[in-house]
Write the structure tokens for this entry.
Amino acid sequence: MSQICLAQVSDGPMLYRQDFKKISANNTVTITSYKKNGGDYVFVGGFGNIDVFSLNKEGLLTPISNHELYKQKGPARGMVADHINGTDFLFVANKYGNVIETFKILDNGSLDRVALVEDTDETHLGVAITLQVVHMKKSSYLFIGGLEETPGLSCFKILNDGKLEHVQSMKDDETIFTDGIIGMYTHKINGKTFLYTGGFQDNGVSSFRVYENGKFKNINNIGDNKTDRFLTGAYPVTGVQLGGNYYVIVGHRHHKYYERNGFIKNTDFFYHGDGVSVFKINTKGALVPHFVLKDDEHTKLQGQTRIEVVSVTEDEAILAVGTRDDASIQLCRLNKEGVLSPLNYLETGFSIYYGLRSHNIDSTDFLIAGSNRFDLHKVASYKVAPKIDTEGKVLRHVVNLKYKAEASEAQIEEAIKTFIDIKNDIPEIASIEWGINNSTEGASKGFTHSFTLTFNDEHAREIYLFHKAHLDLVSKVGPIIEDVFVMDYWTEK
């Protein structure tokens, strides 16, 4: 029987940003990661390009390479890296290129394209969005879904050289939910393999049995309703096994959040709020509605676009929910009974559009996130760690600047005014003060101007850091800055 939980804030881990780096793609749409030869690599896909970074145990990102997508299209969607018969591959759905690209992952994490599969009338690769690798005893298969005009689900056998061989395609109809597959997940239960899909356009989820030869058949389907279902705009799909229980977790970005005329096929939708749905899987692999975590004033669940499993023990799993409309990452706990409860969240300062990935290094959990904003061009890493008690404290952000010798007084005055005025555009800044260095100790190292910004919490700092007004400030003042030294600290109010 389905239950609905009204969210309550709980103790638990928190997100702490470790790094952010520039990307060459126009935005970040999809992120995945991979371990190879003792290294940890992050692949960031957007419009036009894929960027490759290494990730170290402190959560620092180091650029390695960038790679142009087929026809410079994209964005890169549904990226998944996997090991196939001795070779490491990255599979990429080139959304508007209407192709699936296969890249070999080289020893340093860089990429080499080795195969390309174009859409046909029967393969449903147009506007491809989601990829899922399914390993069987003798072969591995790539399942593909998307948003094309004639939607459906397709399976390809992955050959040893990374090429794809078509196995089966199932055209969408009134019974299955495969119109706009943005999320997929697989469970292996009692030796059988099951695939679960979310249908964005037709507002529901479906389960399929996958056989050894890659063929598949529908098991059951569950659609949205007006009481206890939250499946309109079904978006991210993931899963977890806790003890002997198998769960599938489904999020949604409701159709009410879309303003483009003609994009939503069925505009006669019902909105009963935002929530994350938990389904329990029975012995036949079928989806059974089990639990709903409903959004409230204490959570950030509006416009869910990605759900990542951060960690799993025998008794519980920690999940991260990325949101486009709340521009946040919400951490949640799923217990063995399938009850999902909220923990802490971080307002990232940018909307997340599918670009969220969990990664573990030496027992430390990280999340890597990016934004669909075309003005940002950044990817950020976060450490998931016990929450630091900041009750009754404020956060100081101290920026020390050294201007170039050729910078004129007029340019410096304009830079100061621009910095001070930024508070008018970013209300999350509680206060701002500044001054010119007056130290006589000779240890200033040429830094002449100091600005101190105060934030009431870590959310406000993140919003400031990635706010368009701050990015414009950096772009405007950057040409006359020789060096910058920044420190943040918590202090009593």
The mean pLDDT is 95.
